[in-house]
Each structure stands twice: as structure tokens, then as C-alpha cells.
Amino acid sequence: MSLKREIGFLLNGVETHATVPVDLSALSMLRDLLGLTGTKYACGEGECGACTIVVDGVSTCSCLQFAVDCDGRTLTTIEGVAGDPLGAKIEQAFVDCGAVQCGFCTPGMVVQAKHFLETHPQPTRDEIKRGIEGNLCRCTGYVKIIDAIEAASRADR
Amino acid sequence: MKVIEKSTLIGKRIAKLDAPEKAAGMTRYVHDLDLPGQLHARILRSTRVHARIKRIDTRRARALAGVHAVLTAADVPYQRPLGVGKDQLPLKGDKVRSLRDEIAAVAADTEAIAEAALALIDVEYEDLPTLTDPADALKPGAPVIHGETLASPAPHDALKPGEPGDAEAHRHNVAMTFDYAQGDLAAGEAESDVIVDDWFRLHYVTHCCMGVSGIIAEFDRSGNLTLHSNTQVPFLHKREFAEILGMDPGRIRIIQPPIGGGFGSKLDIYPFEPICVFLAKATRRPVKLVFSREEEFIASPTRQPVLLRLRSGAKKDGTLTFRDCETLHDNGAYTSWGATTPFVMMQTISSLYRVPHCKYHTTAVYTNNPYAGSFRGYGNLQATFAVEQQIDELAEKLGIDPLEMRLKNAQDPGEITPQGMHFQTCGLKECLRTAAEVSDYRARHAAALAAQHSPQRYKRGVGMASMLHVGGGAKIYPSDGCGTILKIDDFAHVTLITGASEIGQGSETVLAQLVCEELGIPLDTVSVVNNDTDITPWDVGVHASRTTFIGGNSAIGAARKAKAKVLAAAAKTTGIPEAELELRAGHIVRTATGEALVSLAKLLRSLHFSDKAELVMTTFYYEPPSKHQDKSFKGDVSAAYAWATQVVEVEVDTDTGVVRLLKVTGAHDVGRVLNRLGIEGQIEGGIVMGQGYAITEDLMVDGGVVRNPGFRDYKLVTAPEIPEMEVRFIETMDGEGPQGAKGVGEAPAICIAAATANAICNATGVRIRELPFTPEKVYRALHRAGVPAGPTGGD
Amino acid sequence: MAVEHYWAPTSLSDALEHLRGGDVTVLAGGTDLMPQTQAGRVSLERGLLNVRRVAELHRIERVDGAVRIGALCTITEIMRDPLVGEHFAMLADACDHFASDQLRNAATIGGNVCNASPAGDTLVPLLVLDAEAELASKPGARVERRRVPLADFFVGPGRTRRAPDELLCAIRLPLPPPGFVGRFFKFGTRPALDIAAISIGIGGVRDGRTLVQARVAYGAVAAVPLRARRTEAALEGAALDAATADGVAATARDEVRPIDDLRASAWYRKELVFNMTRRILHDVAEA
Prior knowledge:
heterotrimer; A: 157 residues; alpha+beta; Ubiquitin-like (UB roll); DNA polymerase, domain 1; 2 domains; five-stranded mixed sheet; 6 helices; globular; C: 287 residues; Uridine Diphospho-n-acetylenolpyruvylglucosamine Reductase, domain 2; Uridine Diphospho-n-acetylenolpyruvylglucosamine Reductase, domain 3; Enolase-like, domain 1; five-stranded antiparallel sheet; four-stranded antiparallel sheet; 14 strands
């Protein structure tokens, strides 16, 4: 059995505690220990972005993040995205623009979009494409996802 | 007087009903489900490509704390063969034939324990000679992949006259053959002024559904089995699971949680599914089995790899004379749907354009490679790749404009092809003209030809390809139908219970939309139930671009019955004849004036709470008027046919061989646009999937081993790489289609590789007949052809 | 081996003391370590040392005649840093071609250097920029530091001259001389999320029509990121014309020692080295 550590962190605005094996990924902690299944496993090596979360204000692949290293930090997952107006706007834009098909890449895409728009409030379409280059989607061909992020950036804040 | 104007939902941009949940991360896929008492399963797979299993020792694994069951073939003597070819058992006991082969399975308290237990299973192999090049399969002395275990020899076990190869190897290693012929090939050759003859090589790609494969199996105490499954064909699988498990199909219930992508990958039963059932049976606990991404790459089906020889002829004026196509399909170790892609391939060979004389032959051979399944387009990408390149080649030899060449031979509405397909509607010529015009094809093509030999680093070119695909189902099973149950509650909310499965493509939204259109109710008053075989009526499954067409006609049928019932009741209540009444915005209105007479909800309640208490519930089963093909593969297999032309503009970097897709212009005969947002999404997604097939994706199978089982080196197209897309819809209003629509799901992926090949040739003068167009392959082709790297002077 | 100890110290001194005990895996961004351990390619040692909270490793600062980039600085931070942008544009450029936003946000330059992949994205520009690795250890009571030129730091794939009790603290980049031009090229089919089939870095000081103090490096063409000395010699002081570009590119093609792997064949890598070296030299001449 792996060594375990007790850690505490702010998760979607809520003080959260967990006891985690030190070799566990943040993705497994979120899904298996904390029951937050919105964050998806799709590759486990940082190549697809389906597990994107925000840690201390920057987006990262939770499959690469050691859970134990979340200690004392601030995490936002898809479940917490709609908690602020920009996040809610992005989710709505994904719905309205047809950016969702099978939906499996969508949570990671939405979380990444939020981080991206926070750092690029008035992006061009090419900047949006670069912003989501780490998020794979097999259904949509990305066009409607780019539309949605663009629409969310234009909507009144 | 309250007046309600007539309105329509058809052609509007309608958000998917399931999108809000998905965008919020609240949708529960099979990966997200946990049942009380559930165990986790993992599968031990072969580490050898081809070997006899001498011994399996599971004692150490069984002894591991937290392990509840370890199964090998010896533990499940009741297992029976599965899959399209019925040529494999779920757990292999005597022999492994590919690296994916399942040898043992573990159910444990956690996935980690199950994984640890796998490492404790000892397997002793005796290696056998391997067969990993399909071209070797028919040679004398070729290793025999299935000789001993197949109960009866392969269905087409005789060496055809004139066919090369060794009779014994042939008898054992041929999985399937297909032959089709029309007209008189010799006559076609004789009347040809020009003939082209080429080999084409189509590679392995795989579906890469973002959600990996998974299943949960549980038995109740009466022996009823419930599966939470990703299948695209739940009703067919009930029957198949029953056969494999030796149980009554009526005792199997399949619940389909939302799935993370299908694209054809979930049309067959794969060994992991019954294995999970065996574990549930052995442990009397719910068992969940989910793949890792690496496992998904190794143990999921691929697109059918094909070696294809095509000869085509034409007269001086561009009229096509004949086509002669011969293909070798690498079947892999077992037979799944990939082997049957000739059904579709031969349609493109025989009927995309008018060709009087045609011959088609496929041999699918067993090897120790991964096996191919069905994948969006189903052989059509492969056939179109060859056919559309040769149209350009013939045009070039004849000095005819490639667009003119296509228009000259394109099908027209009303045509019945020699293969028996009846094109009630056919927008091919309009697709060709529209795509050419919107993309400025002629001018760009001519400009690129003129610039072909000028020294430039970046060379641009355009290429065109068209496609024909079934658009009204495909009658390959005893029924190609779909059932609907529709009920309207006392508050005028509709529950649409349909056999048609949602796999992310948006079918539940379009079906709801069609029902609303009939019943004049708003979209948010419809719930769709489509994921439980104990509830939903039969449907053949999500394949062949059929769901909107077949499921749509079925939903409309049920809605019309409900509407008739409602209007009859309304006529009684209002005293106005039925013929003068209509449903609009949740009300019964007088058609002529739009006057709202009574709300639908009120009318329904008055029906319900009356002396002859009555609920509005209807059922409908739609069976398309298509025909099964006869033994010679002739017949009108679909109720409608979809057409498209795509023009691709590329830029080739002669320094590196990198091909960039700049723009794709598509003109699609879709019958009619129902949900504009949804259909655009299908087309855009299909184009990018086609782009991946053409340029970036390559499942490298080397000696039976997948060398790149991960997204790091299996390159899906990323957002910055997508081309500009301009799509036009040609609305031919198919008489048989729901509101005139035809199927479109597969169409957009089909032409891209062929059009890209033509565009590269237009840009560089070099024709490449092998996919994918990865930088090194293109660079080598340019190098061989003597196209120099770009000068460093002026680009 | 199961992990028995986990430490997340906040001072360098404490970190080095844990490291001194041996059998320790160092965790920084985790972007390489996590997939390597999950895939079983690397197993964690008895001690897992998370250095991410050591603040002094997380600064970019100017020190006499050089810029010191703390090993914990993420690729994103380096890409956006004004000092880096001003003096080491080719490094910022390489960072822009690194993996994806999510990975750039987590991956550290120290991790990229210590992971010592022949294709590591930052390594080629760092070689061209004459970077030094600053290593610290604590054999006794005091923290000791030494500097190793990066050109000597890499030993083989995944192997460096860092001793087991040493921690990479910073990368030190001397300020380039006036007139310095640098170019970075990474071959891939996409802007990012791609492992380089080859990468090229060329730098030097423009002197009329020539380039002096020429420095050339290649990625993914040898067991380590390669400082191409023969190519540099061919370039040094030669007139930047087409003949020189062809000659230098030919020298480079001869000097690199690529292998065939699933990303590219050796032949193709050599072709790319030739074509793109030539192209870059042309661009430098035009600049």
C-alpha cells in the first residue's frame, strides 16, 4: 500500500479534506475519492485535456497533477465553473452554439475556455484555437467550440 | 380572439437537449456510474502475437487480498464464439492470435487490486510462426491462423479459378470473399480509349472515442442480466449476448448510459463485454470494466486497412467505360464488421458514377494483426480514395477538366443503377457545380497547374471528390425498422420513447423536433426516452447514417397517430370538422384563421377525465421500403441515397513535406436540413475526421504490435490545424425522408482523403496513392519525383 | 518500491537534506513524472520530495551579466517573462511550441532539463544561449553550489550530470552580446502538442554579412540535445550567402546522428536538418 497523506484545499470554494496515497493523481482523487465525476479520464498522460482543472488560477491536466500536491491550494473543476458569471456564460454558449456532441471532452474544454478567457478577454479566433490546442475533440471538428468561446467573450460581462 | 400564426422548427438552429447537462459536467457516462457492491475488472491480454498457450497459473492472483474472481477459459466452459465471424471465444484457452487476445480476467475490490492481480498470473506460451503481412496469407506454407478451431471451414473456402495462392493456406486463412459484376468487362475495355491501373494502400486508423470502452454487468437473483453498455445496437446485442452466454434473450436488459463517442466502434460485441458478464456471474456482484487509453488503442477495432487495385477506362469524350477493382483486406486475427466493408465499397465502385461494366472482388485474409470493425463511412473512404483519384487521372490523360469529367458521368435523379440502387432523388450534379463554384475550383485548379513547376517552397492546389452513401438506412438485417411509443400527459407534455439511440450525434433532439413539428408543441415539452431495452421498442441500431431517417419516420408516424386522435376529439368538442383544425403552439386552432380554440392540455384532460376515459398514447413501427440485396449483391438496399462533393485546398511545404488543409468546401445533398446547428456539427466533425484519416492519423502496426498506443504519437487533429470550412446544403426533398431529409452522419468524412490526394497532385504534380499524407511520406514522394525543396531565394 | 516518505519542504536547505539521504524521487511540475510512473517506466523511490514549495527556486532575476531562471519556473511563466522576452526571444519562442497551455502551466524548466529528453523543447535554445545548470547540494552543514555548462550536462536520454544528492536550482543564461540574433525551429505538424521530430537553434552576432560567435544546436538527432561544433565552425565568420547556407547545412546534416523511430526516419531527419538549417540561415541573412 502506498503512503497516504492528509491534505486540505479549497475545492470550488469549499474547504475540502482528503486522505490520499502520495502517488495518486488529482484526477483519481476528484473522481474516485470525492465523487466529482465531471472531470474526465481520457488519456492519463496530458495529451487530451479532458481532465482539465484550474489550480491556483492556471489550468492544468489533473491526470498529471499529484493529488498530494493540491495541499493548501485552490482548485476549480467543471462542477464549480458555473459558480461565476463568466463560467455560466461559457456553459450557455457551448449549449447555444452547438459545441457539444458526445460531450465527453466538454467539461475539460469548458474549464480550459474559462481559464483562457480570463487571460485573453478579447481573443481572435486563431488565439482561441491555440488556447484549446491541448483539448482533443473527436466529434465536432472544433468549429462550434471556437464559436462558443468567441460568443462567450463577446457576451456582456 | 387569440390568433396563433403557423410556425416551423424545420431548418432552425436548435440546441441539443442533452447539451446543458453535458456542458456542466453532470452527464453520467458509464465511467461515472458505480453500483452498490460493485467490483472492478481488468483483463490479462496476450504478450505474444501468435502462440499456443501451454499453461496458465492463476493461483497467486487468486490468493491476493481483495480479489474475488480470476477467470480463464477453463472456468467458463459454457462460453461460445462471438462477433461477426463467430471465430473467437471471449477468453482464449488454447491459442492466442493477436496481442489483444484475452487470456484471463480478474474482478477485485478496486481497479488497482485487479491490476496487481494480473501481474501475478503466469502464462507459458509456445510461440508460433506469425503472419502479419496480409500479402503472405495465401502463400504456400503460410502460418494458419484458425485452421484447428473453426468448426466449419470459412464460408468461401474454395480457391477461385485464376486466383493466386496456395489452396491449403487459402482454405484456412481466407475469412471472407466478395464478388460483384455487372456488364461485360472485356467489352468495356475494348471500347476504352484510355485505361488507368493503380494500386492504393489504405492504412489503419482507429475511432479514438474520447470515452474509453466500458461496461457494467449485474445479475438479479432471478438470473436476469442488466448491462450498462456503450453499444450502438442494443437490440441486436440482446440476442447476441444471449447466444454467447447461452441464456434467454428476454432475460437481458441493456441500459445505455450516454456514450463518449461511437463512430461505428460499438456495432459489434467485443470479448471484454461477455468477460465482464462472466465475472458478474462468478461473483454474484455488479462488475464494472473500463479500458485504459492504451488498452483502447490495442484492443478496440480499427478502420479496415485495404490494399486495392483499381483499373478504370474511359472514352475520348470522357464517358466511363469500365471499372475493375480487386482488394485484399487484412482481416486481422478475427472477423468483425471490417471484413464486410465491401458491401459499401462496391456501391461506390459501381454506382457513384455511371459505369456500364464493372467487376469487384475482395479477399479478406486472417493475420495476426488487430482486427478491423465498422467505422464511420464503412469502406467508403477507402473506395472513394481510389475511384476519385482515377477520375482525375483519366481526366488528365484525356485533357478534360476534372469537373466536366465528373459531370459527364454523374448520376441523375430517377436512375436505377446496374447494381439495383434506385436514386429517387440525386443532387450529385448540383453538389458538383455548387462545390466548384463556391470554391472557385476551376480557376484555382488551372492556376496551380500553371505554377506546378515554378520553384516555390509552398505550393498550393485544389482537389475535388464526390461520394455516394446510403441515406435512408441499409437493409442488411431482417428488419431495418425502428419503433416509437408516444404518450402525451394531462399537461400536454410528450414522452417520446424511441428505439433509436443517441450517441452524441443529436438524434434525440432531431426526433423531438420532428414530433413537435407534427404536434405543434414547443420543444421543451418533450422528453425523450431512448436508452433501455426494457422500455424502448425495437430498433436495429445506430449505423448506416440511418437514425434521423428511420427513427424520424417512426417518430413522425407515432406523432401523426396522436395528432389524428387529438384532432378527432377536438372536432367533437368544437363542432368544427377535423380537416379545418390544426395544432399550433400547444393549442387547437382553426387552420384558416389561426384562431386558438382550446389548449391542448385542456382538451387532453377532458378526454382523460371523461366517461370513456382515454389517454393519448400511440405506437408506430417504421420499416423503410428498401430491399435486401440478392446473392449477387444487387438490390435497392436503402430508401434514399446521400450525395456530396467536397473541394479541398492544400498547401504543400516542399522543404518538409507538411501538407496543410487550408479550406474545405462541401456541397451536401442532405434531402432537407432539419436542425441546422446539428447538421453543421455533423459535417464539420466529419470533415475533421476525414482530415485526420488523410493527413495526421496513423495507427502504426508493426509485426502485429501497435507501436503508438496513445495520443502522443497517434495524432488526432487539434484545433489550430482545422481548415476553413464552407458548407452548402443541397435540399432535394426526398419523398421518403422525414420532412424530406436524408441521412448525413457518415457523408462528410468520406471524400476528404481522395480530394486531398487530388489537391496534392494539383499542387506538386505528384500523385500519392498511399495514406496517410504524413510529412515524411509526402516529402519522400516529392523527393522521388524530383520535386526540389523550396529555393531559399524568394518564396 | 512503495513510497515510504513524502516531504514538501519550503526551504532549499531542507530539501537538500532530504535528498542527501538517497533513494529520493524529486517532484516538481509532475508532467513527466506522473505519466512515467503510471506507465511503469519509472518507479518512485522510497522518498518522494516535492520541491514545488521552495520559493527561492521560483524566481526569474537578473544577476551580474546573466539572467537566472529558477528551476521551478513554469514554461508559461518563462514565455511571458519580460526579461526573457527582451534577451532570449528564441527561448520564449520554444516555450510557445511546448505541449499545450495546460502543460506549459504545470511543467517547469528544471523538469524539462532534468528529464533530458533529446527532444526536450527548451533544451536547444538553452544550448544556443550558452546556458549553465546551477546545482546545489548539502553534503555537510552548508549548501554548496556548482555550475555546469548545459552543453556538458546531458549524458544520455534521461541521464544528466546531476548527482543524486543534487538539486537543479536554476538555469543561468548570460546576457547575449549586442547584435545577437537567435532563431528556433521545431518541426511538427501543429503549433504545439507535438514531440519534435527535430528542432534547430541557431544564434550568433551579426557582423556585416557574417555571423560570429556562432552557436548551433539540434534536438532529437542524437542521444542528447546536440551542440553542433563542426557546424558552428563552418558558420563562424562566413559570409551569409546561399553557398555558405548550403555548405553549413550540409555540414550539419553530416554532423547529426539521428535514429529511425516512429516519429521519423533518420534519413528524413537529416533532410529536415539540411533544408531547415539552410532556410534559417537565409532568414538570418535577410533579417
